[in-house]
Amino acid sequence: MSERFKAFWVEEKEGGFQHSVTERSLDELPAGEVVVNVECSSVNYKDALSASGNRGVTRNYPHTPGIDAAGTVATSTDPHFHPGDPVIVMGYDLGMNTPGGFAEKIRVPASWVIHRPERLSAEDAMVFGTAGFTAAMCVDTLLQVGIAPEQGPVLVTGATGGVGIIAVWLLRNMGFEVVASTGKMDQEQLLKQIGASRLIQRDALLENANRPMNKPLWAAAVDTVGGAVLSNLIKSIQYGGSVACCGMVAGPEINTSVFPFILRGINLLGVDSVELPLDVKQDIWEMIGKQWLYPDFSQFKSLTTRAVGLEDLSDALQSVLNGTHCGRFVVKIS
């Protein structure tokens, strides 16, 4: 008899989408070389979309979301992985159209599996998850084009979200002056505790939107928002500065002119964490686990992260979908 395990389940009923925790069989999972015993996952905006029935993310239901998973190898037919190996799976199709990390077990291609760095527990890896990995990618991208603390302040938009809050913390630990933009000004104390020097209201980034250029204010920016915010933010980047762009909660379109690019020589740098080659993902995770797990990580975790179980997951997903959450949710599977 095939092994059975618990899974979060999203199914379409009576014109809506309902959540439950159910039992599934290993035989029901798709083919793949590696079976992972999942210890922890995390909640990302894409998970909230999948759980709400968004067919742009997940085509077919019923379904188990969860684009992140951390745990240990249960079985593997691939020689690179052995039972008990600590691993991370993130991105590619996990949790979208492949049963995801909101379950005690997943079965995936070996080409999706990353060896988890020794210093990272499953829980700590999921404090980062796809959101923290994306933040790390944004920061690394800015460093690669030569952004340095002495050049001036770095703006982080959407600073109370998963990507933004980790970007603030990473940049501050690297010596940057970090300015946090948010629509949740009641989170000022939290953002300053993790490293923001000051906050600006999100709507302030929309001022003077009719101008082709604005006063240069930022050496660089991590933009998690997109849309009109990114369109106007580009106009306020200093000469030679860069924007790492990774989100579109304010919309997928930008409307700007060539002037900031040809008169100030700025860079707009797209960041993808989903289809990134596996060896690059492994390198970034090694960097997180070895160089960027700063001494105040435990404090950061306690301030910004809430643990939930499968039974509590619906509320967490709804708060992420509504944009009312702050920080990260780690899902403790087992």
What does the model show?
The protein has 334 residues and is an alpha/beta fold. The chain folds into two domains: 145 residues, Quinone Oxidoreductase, Chain A, domain 1 (Alpha-Beta Complex); 141 residues, 3-Layer(aba) Sandwich (Rossmann fold), CATH 3.40.50. It contains nine helices and 15 strands. Strands 3, 4, 5, 6, 7, 14 and 15 form a seven-stranded mixed sheet that branches. Helix 9 links the parallel strand 14 and strand 15. Helix 1 packs across helix 9, helix 2 packs across helix 3 and helix 2 crosses helix 7. The model has no long low-confidence stretch (mean pLDDT 96).
What sequence of helices (H) and strands (E) makes up the elements?
EEEHEEEEHEHEHEEHEHEHHEHE
- What level of helicity do the residues show? 25-40%
Strands, count: 15
Count, helices: 9
**CATH architectural category of the largest domain:** Alpha-Beta Complex
Quick one: CATH superfamily of the largest domain? Answer: Medium-chain alcohol dehydrogenases, catalytic domain
